């Protein structure tokens, strides 16, 4: 008990000590940063790779996209998504050539085109962030390109090197990065894809294979020596990429960090012995030309981006969509960006603390977890989301947008029961598609943050159709101006037609059992699995859930032994090709290790896909896409699932937080009002001290009678 | 004594080999090198060649335990098992599958874990022992029964809810401490208050119950009866005899866990965002980073054995009758 | 119907058989009967025993599994795919009355707003009425409280009647055995200072019966502990979790017991290389963090099941095997403690005079161990068993957090608590799943803990001396 009092007093004294500072007691940041122009956010998964040749995940892009500048980017405000130049001077227009090397007009027929050339011209005067790799002495020799063990004493981070330097960006850096994509030791995820498209890429990759394993410095040497026939540096500021045949989607790839420039100096610098064991790697310490640079890299605690002093400068876009002028998103039009000096991303593994810290003002923006949803958002009578009064009071605003993602329930087309081209299986799949009520799924598990999918293409991507023309009439009917799911009776009739009256399999006399492959991870899974079982039970089907770990799940997908599963796809780029290829036969998971997880193959669909892929977006392409959608809706290899909607909340001191699902480099557009933030944080987080006094009083109250009891008992036992 | 310690340390080697073998088997029965490669390479557009290349690069291209193609000793040394575990014995952890140096990471992450574990241990020990003495003082009365009910209630509550509750009350409601986060150096102290309070409260249930049992056993001994018969007051009996004699099991219980404090706490570290070894291990398991898992298990085993030796030594210090041969 | 025998069912039956056999054996031997009698004489021991028996009876009822026959005219009999237990059958109402999503205890409306079609066309968002909960009420706002009170009264009455019937039966039985009138027996039970605390026993029994009847009466029309995210009755889930909790607490020890006893005694008795080997074994196992061992084992099982998918056609079988496996692996991680205790004790016993004397007389090792060592360490085994029980029940809840607990589709307190961590972050808070799981688990753990204390007092020869 006495210890307890001591602890309590200690705690009180400690609190009194903090109380002397004027920042709030519960602030997770140092009090010196109160007014600084710093953006605060959080991240959930530690980034795995910060090397632009390797990184492919959203956990990494939030940092990388601010640091590296590929040739192109997406326009911040315009919809549909439009590519605009970033480090390039303009968006390259491909030029086509036939097999003999003769130039062809833009509308040349597909089979004539043997080669397409992309001439990329870059902006002059772009310089890299200050970095020791560029540091030179008075004679122009690199200071840190021949490090010895002794030089590394006292070096724990890349920021510990005293001297830094910079250099202008040249076309060679882009060439160097493309060669890196081919390097087998870097395991770039797009090596396989680029092999098909960039001329000479495969030859280079094979050549580099011979060097593999010879040591980091040899790797860099080999890369610098290597040549690739399909990429040609024309002068200091321009280079040309030659592709096999026609590949209109290539410009989208030029907007991804894979094609960001990489200076050879950096690669060489990090390859030196002794740096790797200090975790100083190119994979962890990026060197870019972008508006920000990574100054603190501690993925188990926080990542800090700071303004790049050498940034070439960019201006806030002047063009916007109708209505943007009124909403205030164009208020900064034409001003130089970036606005924010520093961005601190803290690791936050659990939702609950992250959400609470956002409410306290310690994060500037936040998504909404399913469970905090009711606290933040109400759905009004028209089905529109509005913020709860409690949240609105704090001046928090809500932004929503449909993500370029589709979550679907797929049928394995290789399975004899649910798969295959037989009418019986097709009817079964359609019946299931009707019975599994994704409206309910969206409402229970995502709080209505999603639109039920009518096909593989989400809204905002070319090929998606609004209204009656866009519905999947095998599952929906158009009634009173909206799509209504067909009735369960209809699904049951389909079951009868398919030969499973009441869900009973005539061969066994038992209820039809279908296996559901599942990666069970979180606490929410039980509810979801129960829900799914209920859906199948509506048709009398017994859903057998085979929960397993992610590896096993993937293995089943690769070997094609599953029956029903759920999966999703996040767009690489806003083109229908990037979604329809998920159903393209030659992209089958089992046969070709592709992304067509259902192993769906329909010759007509594949033919149309080959045609659609090379078309320019327009009415003709729309017609082809419509035909393709009709085919897959009839075959129903997926029950189409839903397109999730992103809801994000922003404090009133954060400006220009426009949701753009394709652009990741949006930090540079954001602006904050640090004074307002400091004021509001203070107001919201005044410490409540009475509980401390109450606790002290309670302890005293408890100790006195306890002491009295001890004394009394002692006297009584002594007798 | 020195000879004893040396012998115990030598005994540790077969144990560590065994631990390593079991870890290795368990991990690779579940995760084949292919799985690990796919995990590291990401989800999209992964080809069979890329998987093979990754395995070769990270030394997972060889047979697991026995290389039939090898000659002589190479049959056993030219395998994943040998290559990956031999270096552990000189505490060279190598680099993780992600490419970071493990030894460096461990040396960085050990301090936050200790910063929480040590205060929790000390404050918890003081509180639990005082509370247990109090209960024992009132043994076989309603105070005793009520305390046991309270303790059982406290230990039935999942530690998760102490964390969520602590964050809610102290952080969100009263704005007294940061809800989560960490900082380097001395700035860390304000992030430690909440985890330590939660850790202590979460440990009261089981800790106090254990000490109560210990004291009750001690109180049943003959010498206590003799002391009472001599007319000693109950308080003197408790503090002078029971507590002093119970110190041996208390001490040895504490010594065993001392080295393990390095390992950190699994759940609370990820909830409070503390970059310690506990969250390191959990992340590694979920990312299937075998290099880290293996290193942490090895480290844990070493520390455990160290704890056992320390216990034996501490026996001789508190109880002169015990002698190590 | 056709019976289904799950692995864990079989083990439960085995456990029951062992318990009964041991009980019959102990009843004939005074030295074994004495400590148990001491347990029964303690008021706390009696009360907790009855509570534990209540839990155990639910678990046993829940362990008789079968498939129901489907009504189909003609042909050979067809059985439904669902595996049910006697307990499910008894609670079929609860099982089948599902809502859409969350509803609070005793609620008549859902806990979340949903789009509701207005009669005149158009949509509004409101709290819809529940499909089952309180559906019999015409005007829930006005009638609910009255209805609940009436049901509570009716339930209490039923409970009392049932209790009186049980007491009557007991009196009659006891009276007939002792050949005295029931009044005499009754007076004997009620008089203070009886050997067995009959009043406590009957009071606890009465309390349980009344509570059960009230709950039953209310649960017929309400979700007395609310519903979960997909609208399943939480009361039903909590009751179903009883079996899981008890199984983990008992089967684990059953599984580990033979190894622990055998190896522990062997190490202490034979010493030398046997001792070294066994010590090596348990030190090695102990050095590996338990969580990792369990995680790996559970993943291994999943690999096995996905490779042999045909053998596990139904969900229940898969979940059951995972539960069994969890028990085994928990046993593997926890046998070392008991093994070490037994080793220490046998080391001591071996030096005892009577053992040395028997050795000198040339008694065989096997006889010596079974005659002298084993009976003398039995109290340690029993105390450990009882003490471990509550720890294991709690461990299940922690393991579920790391997703290496029981199957996610299985009802267990761990799973309920784990999903509750998300529910707690909701606003308004969904507290009932957690509260229900906590309440049932708390009562079980408390009873087990108090019981363990009594058992220890009764069995440990050192403690016995002073009481």
Automatic annotation (TrEMBL), chain A:
GO CC annotation, single: outer membrane-bounded periplasmic space
Transmembrane segments: 690-710
Short name of one Pfam family: SBP_bac_5
Keywords carried by this UniProt record: Membrane, Transmembrane, Transmembrane helix
GO BP annotations, alphabetical order: peptide transport
The keyword RNA-binding appears for this protein: no
GO molecular function per UniProt: peptide transmembrane transporter activity
SUPFAM superfamilies: Periplasmic binding protein-like II (SSF53850)
InterPro entries assigned to the protein according to its UniProt record, in alphabetical order: SBP_5, SBP_5_dom
Domain Solute-binding protein family: 168-588
PANTHER family per UniProt: PERIPLASMIC BINDING COMPONENT OF ABC TRANSPORTER (PTHR30290)
Protein name: ABC-type transporter, periplasmic subunit
Organism: Thiorhodococcus drewsii AZ1
Automatic annotation (TrEMBL), chain B:
GO term, biological process aspect, one: transmembrane transport
GO CC, any one term: plasma membrane
Location(s), subcellular: Cell membrane
Origin superkingdom: Bacteria
The UniProt record lists the keyword Chaperone: no
Domain ABC transmembrane type-1 span(s) in chain numbering: 110-314
Keyword match Aminoacyl-tRNA synthetase: no
Membrane-spanning intervals of the chain: 9-30, 114-138, 145-168, 188-207, 246-267, 296-318
Swiss-Prot/TrEMBL keywords: Cell membrane, Membrane, Transmembrane, Transmembrane helix, Transport
Lipid bilayer topology: Multi-pass membrane protein
A Pfam family per the record: BPD_transp_1
Record family assignment: Belongs to the binding-protein-dependent transport system permease family.
Protein name per the record: ABC-type transporter, integral membrane subunit
Origin species: Thiorhodococcus drewsii AZ1
TrEMBL record, chain C:
Keyword Protein transport part of the UniProt annotation: yes
Keywords carried by this UniProt record: Cell membrane, Membrane, Peptide transport, Protein transport, Transmembrane, Transmembrane helix, Transport
Annotated GO biological process: peptide transport; protein transport; transmembrane transport
The ABC transmembrane type-1 domain, residue ranges: 242-452
The keyword NAD belongs to this UniProt entry's keyword annotation: no
GO cellular component labels: plasma membrane
Compartment list: Cell membrane
Transmembrane intervals: 6-27, 39-61, 152-173, 200-225, 245-268, 280-303, 323-342, 380-402, 429-452
Pfam families: BPD_transp_1 (PF00528)
Membrane topology of the entry: Multi-pass membrane protein
PROSITE patterns: ABC_TM1 (PS50928)
Similarity comment: family membership: Belongs to the binding-protein-dependent transport system permease family.
Name of this protein: ABC-type transporter, integral membrane subunit
Source organism of this protein record: Thiorhodococcus drewsii AZ1
Organism lineage string: Bacteria, Pseudomonadati, Pseudomonadota, Gammaproteobacteria, Chromatiales
């Amino acid at each position: 008990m006495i210890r307890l009092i001591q602890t309590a007093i200690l705690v009180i004294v400690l609190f009194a000590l903090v109380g002397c500072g004027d920042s709030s007691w519960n602030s997770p940041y140092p009090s010196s940063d109160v007014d600084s122009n710093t953006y605060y956010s959080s991240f959930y998964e530690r980034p795995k790779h910060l090397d632009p040749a390797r990184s492919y995940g959203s956990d990494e892009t939030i940092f990388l996209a601010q640091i590296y500048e590929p040739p192109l980017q997406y326009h911040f405000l315009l919809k549909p998504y439009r590519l605009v130049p970033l480090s390039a001077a303009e968006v390259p227009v491909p030029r086509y050539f036939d097999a003999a090397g003769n130039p062809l007009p833009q509308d040349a027929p597909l089979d004539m085109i043997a080669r397409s050339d992309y001439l990329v011209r870059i902006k002059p005067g772009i310089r890299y962030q200050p970095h020791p790799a560029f540091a030179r002495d008075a004679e122009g020799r690199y200071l840190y390109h021949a490090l010895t063990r002794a030089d590394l004493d006292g070096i724990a981070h890349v920021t510990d090197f005293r001297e830094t330097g910079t250099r202008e960006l040249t076309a060679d850096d882009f060439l160097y990065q493309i060669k890196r994509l081919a390097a087998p030791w870097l395991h770039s995820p797009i090596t396989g894809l680029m092999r098909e498209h960039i001329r000479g890429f495969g030859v280079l990759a094979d050549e580099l294979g011979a060097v593999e394993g010879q040591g980091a410095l040899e790797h860099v040497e080999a890369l610098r020596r290597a040549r690739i026939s399909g990429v040609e540096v024309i002068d200091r500021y321009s280079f040309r990429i030659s592709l096999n045949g026609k590949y209109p989607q290539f410009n989208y790839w030029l907007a991804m960090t894979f094609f960001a420039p990489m200076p050879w100096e950096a690669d060489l610098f990090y390859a030196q012995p002794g740096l790797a064991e200090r975790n100083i790697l190119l994979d962890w310490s990026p060197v870019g030309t972008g508006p920000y640079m990574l100054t603190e890299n501690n993925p188990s605690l926080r990542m800090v981006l700071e303004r790049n002093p050498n940034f070439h400068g960019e201006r806030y876009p002047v063009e916007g969509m109708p209505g943007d002028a009124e909403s205030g998103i164009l208020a900064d039009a034409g001003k130089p960006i970036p606005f924010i000096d520093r961005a601190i991303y803290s690791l936050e593994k659990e939702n609950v603390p992250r959400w609470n810290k956002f409410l306290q003002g310690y994060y500037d923006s936040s998504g909404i977890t399913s469970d905090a949803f009711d606290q933040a958002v109400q759905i009004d009578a028209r089905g529109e989301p509005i913020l709860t009064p409690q949240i609105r009071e704090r001046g928090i605003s809500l932004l929503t947008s449909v993500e370029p993602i589709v979550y679907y329930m797929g049928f394995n087309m290789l399975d004899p029961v649910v798969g295959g081209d037989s009418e019986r299986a097709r009817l079964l799949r359609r019946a299931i598609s009707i019975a599994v009520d994704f409206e309910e799924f969206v409402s229970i598990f995502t709080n209505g943050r999603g639109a039920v999918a009518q096909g593989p293409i989400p809204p905002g991507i070319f090929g998606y159709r609004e209204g009656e023309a866009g519905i999947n009439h095998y599952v929906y009917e158009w009634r009173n101006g909206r799509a209504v799911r067909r009735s369960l009776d209809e699904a049951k009739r389909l079951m009868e037609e398919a030969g499973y009256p009441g869900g009973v399999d005539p061969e066994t006399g038992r209820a039809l059992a279908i296996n559901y492959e599942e990666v069970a991870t979180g606490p929410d899974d039980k509810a979801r699995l129960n829900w799914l079982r209920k859906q199948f039970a509506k048709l009398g089907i017994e859903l057998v859930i085979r929960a397993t770990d992610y590896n096993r799940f993937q293995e089943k997908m690769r070997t094609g032994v599953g029956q029903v599963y759920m999966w999703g796809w996040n767009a690489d780029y806003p083109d229908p090709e990037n979604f329809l290829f998920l159903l393209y036969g030659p992209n089958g998971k089992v046969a070709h290790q592709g992304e067509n997880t259902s192993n769906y193959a329909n010759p007509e669909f594949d033919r149309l896909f080959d045609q659609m892929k090379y078309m320019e977006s327009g009415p003709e392409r729309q017609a082809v896409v419509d035909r393709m959608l009709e085919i897959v809706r009839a075959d129903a290899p997926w029950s189409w699932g839903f397109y999730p909607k992103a809801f994000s909340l922003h404090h009133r001191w954060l400006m220009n937080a426009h949701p753009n699902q394709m652009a990741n480099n949006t930090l540079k557009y954001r602006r904050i009002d640090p004074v307002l933030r400091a004021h509001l944080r203070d107001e919201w987080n005044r410490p409540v001290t009475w509980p401390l006094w109450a606790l002290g009083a309670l302890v005293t109250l408890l100790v006195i009678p306890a002491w009295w009891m001890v004394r009394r008992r002692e006297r009584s036992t002594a007798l | 004594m020195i000879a004893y310690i040396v012998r115990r340390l030598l005994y540790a080697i077969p144990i560590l080999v065994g631990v390593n073998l079991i870890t290795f088997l368990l991990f690779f029965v579940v995760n084949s090198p292919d799985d690990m490669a796919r995990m590291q390479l990401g989800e999209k557009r992964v080809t069979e060649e890329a998987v093979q290349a990754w395995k070769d690069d990270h030394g997972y291209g060889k047979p697991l335990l026995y290389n039939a193609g090898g000659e002589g000793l190479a049959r056993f040394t030219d395998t994943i098992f040998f290559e990956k575990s031999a270096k552990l014995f000189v505490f060279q952890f190598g680099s993780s599958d992600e490419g970071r140096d493990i030894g460096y990471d461990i040396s960085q992450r050990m301090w936050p874990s200790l910063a929480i574990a040590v205060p929790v241990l000390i404050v918890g020990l003081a509180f639990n022992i005082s509370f247990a003495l109090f209960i024992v003082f009132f043994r076989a009365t309603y105070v005793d029964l009520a305390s046991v009910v309270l303790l059982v209630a406290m230990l039935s509550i999942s530690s998760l809810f102490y964390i969520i509750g602590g964050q809610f009350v102290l952080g969100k409601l009263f704005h007294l401490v940061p809800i989560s986060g960490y900082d380097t150096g001395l700035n860390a102290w304000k992030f430690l208050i909440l985890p330590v309070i939660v850790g202590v409260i979460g440990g009261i249930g089981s800790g106090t119950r254990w000490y109560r049992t210990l004291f009750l056993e001690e109180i049943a001994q003959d010498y206590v009866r003799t002391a009472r018969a001599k007319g000693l007051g109950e308080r003197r009996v408790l503090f002078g005899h029971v507590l002093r004699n119970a110190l041996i099991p208390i001490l040895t219980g504490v010594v065993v866990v001392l080295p393990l404090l390095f390992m950190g706490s699994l759940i609370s570290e990820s909830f409070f965002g503390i970059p310690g070894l506990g969250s390191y291990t959990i992340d590694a398991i979920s990312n299937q980073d075998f290099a880290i898992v293996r290193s942490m298990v090895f480290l844990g085993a070493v520390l455990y054995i160290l704890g056992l030796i320390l216990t034996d030594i501490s026996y001789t210090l508190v109880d002169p009758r015990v002698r190590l041969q | 119907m056709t019976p289904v025998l799950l692995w864990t069912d079989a083990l439960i039956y085995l456990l029951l058989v062992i318990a009964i056999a041991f009980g019959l054996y102990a009843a004939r031997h005074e030295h074994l009967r004495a400590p148990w009698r001491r347990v029964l004489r303690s008021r706390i021991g009696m009360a907790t025993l009855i509570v534990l028996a209540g839990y155990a009876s639910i678990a046993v009822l829940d362990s008789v599994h079968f498939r129901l026959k489907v009504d189909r005219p003609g042909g050979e009999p067809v059985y439904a795919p669902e595996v049910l237990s006697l307990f499910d059958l008894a609670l079929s109402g609860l099982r089948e009355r599902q809502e859409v999503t969350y509803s609070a205890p005793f609620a008549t409306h859902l806990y979340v707003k949903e789009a509701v079609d207005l009669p005149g066309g158009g949509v509004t968002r409101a709290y819809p009425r529940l499909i089952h909960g309180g559906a019999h009420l015409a005007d829930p706002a006005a009638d609910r409280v009255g209805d609940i009170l009436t049901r509570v009264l009716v339930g209490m009455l039923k409970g009392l009647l049932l209790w009186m019937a049980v007491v009557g039966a007991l009196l009659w039985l006891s009276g007939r055995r002792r050949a005295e009138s029931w009044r005499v027996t009754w007076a004997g039970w009620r008089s203070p200072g009886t050997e067995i605390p009959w009043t406590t026993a009957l009071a606890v029994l009465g309390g349980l019966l009344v509570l059960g009847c009230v709950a039953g009466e209310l649960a017929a029309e309400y979700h007395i502990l609310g519903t979960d995210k997909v609208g399943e009755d939480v009361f039903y889930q909590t009751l179903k979790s009883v079996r899981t909790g008890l199984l983990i607490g008992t089967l684990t020890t059953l599984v580990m017991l033979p190894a622990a006893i055998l190896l522990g005694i062997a190490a202490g008795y034979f010493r030398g290389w046997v001792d070294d080997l066994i010590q090596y074994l348990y030190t090695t196992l102990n050095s590996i963090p338990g969580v990792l061992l369990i995680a790996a084992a559970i993943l291994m099982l999943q690999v096995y099941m996905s490779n042999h998918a045909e053998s596990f056609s139904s969900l229940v079988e898969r979940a059951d095997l995972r539960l069994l496996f969890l028990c085994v692996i928990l046993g593997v991680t926890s046998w070392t403690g008991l093994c070490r205790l037994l080793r220490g004790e046998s080391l001591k016993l071996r030096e005892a005079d009577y053992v040395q004397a028997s050795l000198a007389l040339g008694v065989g090792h096997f006889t010596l161990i079974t005659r002298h060592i084993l009976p003398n360490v039995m109290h340690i085994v029993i105390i450990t068993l009882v003490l471990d029980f509550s720890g294991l029940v709690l461990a299940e809840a922690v393991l579920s957090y790391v997703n290496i607990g029981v199957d996610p589709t299985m009802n267990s307190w761990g799973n309920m608590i784990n999903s509750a961590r998300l529910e707690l972050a909701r606003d308004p808070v969904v507290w009932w799943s957690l509260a229900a799981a906590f309440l049932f688990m708390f009562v079980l753990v408390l009873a087990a803990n108090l019981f363990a204390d009594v058992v220890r007092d009764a069995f440990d020869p050192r403690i016995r001396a002073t009481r």
